[in-house]
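Much of the work behind modern protein science is quiet bookkeeping, done one molecule at a time. The fold becomes a row of whole numbers, each drawn from a learned catalogue of backbone shapes. The protein below has been through that process, and both of its lines are reproduced in full.
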Amino acid sequence: MGQGQRPLSGSRRRFVGASAAGAAAVALPAWLAGCGREAPPLEGGFTGIDMVRGHALRDGRWTSQPVAKERRTRVLIAGGGVAGLAAARALRQAGIDDFALLELEDEAGGNARGGQVGGLACPLGAHYLPVPGDEAREVQDLLEELGLRRREAGRWVYDERHLCHSPQERLFFRGEWQEGLLPVQGVGAATLAQYRRFAQKVEALVRATRFAIPTLRAAPSALLADLDRTTFVAWLDAEGLDDPQLRWYLGYCCRDDYGAGLAHVSAWAGLHYFASRHGFHAPGDGLDAEREGVFTWPEGNAWLSRRLAAPLAERLHTGQVVLQIEQTRSGVTVDAWDAAAQQRVRWQAEQCIVALPVFVAARVVASPPVFLSELGGVLTYSPWLVANLHLSAPLRDRPGAAPSWDNVVYGTRGLGYVDAGHQRLDPTPAPTVLSWYRPLGASEFDGSDGRRLLAERPWEAWRDELMAELSVPHPDLAERATRLAITRYGHAMAVPAPGLRARLVPGGEVQAGRLHFAHADWSGCSIFEEAFTRGHLAGEAAARAA
């Protein structure tokens, strides 16, 4: 799921095991047999998320069970996504080793987890990290710690082995592949003129006010407040930016970064990634649209989350469903259901870092602070589906740009696919995994109830949609596909709807007594830099208070 902004975007982070749960061999639908060859059976199924655990709070499961065991720790971290892992790192840096981290799934990392299909590593969500800017100093420090950047002759140098290899991205548009994701093949002068006008608008906004990632480093301004009050589509209408190709591209960016379309995100959100990273560059402006580096790995951002989780050892407790968090006179009590032991465990801690999505935190925190209840009542989330498709051999290609890391098909409901094998140094043709991303939030393409679709649609229906979309540029897809592993996220990322930014708690620390809140939700957009910074600051605050 998305992480950044096009041409260097991808909130697909913001999930697959070695074999698909409940795998079954099925025949492909008849429309795929049109290639004239008999397609091999395609194994597949859902995997990666335990929906029973995820729905435990909603269903009231285990809440009436008696406490079977009590444990104590100095600091308790509830939630093992990027924010929770960053908080744990900050505690260790502060010299605090007496802490515990409770994670719902069987592996920490949240939307930055990875897996394998057919023995090949692939991302389960977030699949890259842009080289961070100066405002994201906590992330910069992490990269230095992990050996991804070093200083040479007074300049920062990044490890080329971990930066995305070229070619980086391409678009299937009007029957052939073109470089980059902005439609340019055969577009008219009017379209190019609107590209240039939008670029000028973004440049003017950057000069007028401060955009930043993480968002907490952007000073409040009347201009940002005005942009937050209206939808992105209304802003485009007011500016006379109505070109279909430009609208498609910007809509794609919003669906990629937020899981929702132009009519459902604020103008601030629609402009944020362009203005806070590298701007928007129209064709022919003489600037290199790929000048900003992107870190990526076959397993996606799991490369990062696994390195954050590794030092925790026995302090990391997976398969834990947090049921209740309550402040007391002397500390914090946290009840959790241990899925492996099938018992309710009560933790007593001096401080608690609540690294949970806001909608979960609002449910489990007893007597929640007003700011938590208010944000929990208005924040909406986009459901996502991520499908990892194993291929026995590389696909044949249509004319145009060469196979790239990120490959998008114009005008489709999906967001294209990332090739997990793109980072291989060996050029010998070999099996690979394509990671296909499908947002299901409100958009101009799909107004359905995405969570209901995720819960009720069989995996074969998603298979058919994926195959139909990707078979257009790759007619031999059915011949090469061997296994499909699908992961469903009911609340994958926060949607920055109009007015949301104004409701966020100002400043970098969100705290109520002994509770320290840490999640990308508190920034209004779900990207690695936001989650990591929020977690790091909460860890520092808890360390000072403990």
Summary: The chain is about 30% helix and 25% strand. The chain has a mean pLDDT of 90.
